[in-house]
Amino acid sequence: MAVMKVIEVMANSEKSWEDATKKAVAHAAKSVKYIKSAFVQSQSVVVTDGEVEEFRVNVKITFEVK
Fold first, then answer.
1. Cα 13 from chain centroid?
2. Nearest CA among 13, 9, 3, 6 for reference residue 54
3. The pLDDT value given to residue 3
4. Contact 62, 8 (CB under 8 A)
5. Which of 1, 20, 34, 39 has the most crowded CB, counting CB atoms within 10 A?
6. pLDDT confidence of residue 4
7. Tell me: domain 3-65, CATH 3.30.1660.10, correct?
8. Residue 5: which of 51, 54, 60 has the closest Cα?
9. Residue 19's pLDDT is what?
């Protein structure tokens, strides 16, 4: 039986939500091993003068505890 743990990470990108998600996982992977999945819990954008400036995601990352 595996023991799993979930952490929550927020990230942003000027390109896309997909890029922000990749940044969240990459950042978590610097200090967490055995990442198994990522769930995008929420998405939002920052709007300035009627234009999207930044994409933001709140990601739940699941990893195995060994």
1. 11
2. 13
3. 96
4. no
5. 20
6. 97
7. yes
8. 60
9. 98
Q: What is the pLDDT of residue 9?
A: 97
User: Which residue ranges of the chain lie beneath pLDDT 50?
Assistant: none
**Which segments of 1-66 are extended strands (E)?**
3-13, 35-48, 51-65
Under 8 Å between Cβ of 43 and 61: no
Q: Where are the domains of the chain?
A: 3-65
Token pair for residue 55?
A: 């994409």
The structure tokens listed for 63 are 């990893």
Look at residues 43, 31, 33, 37 and name the one whose alpha carbon lies nearest to residue 61: 37
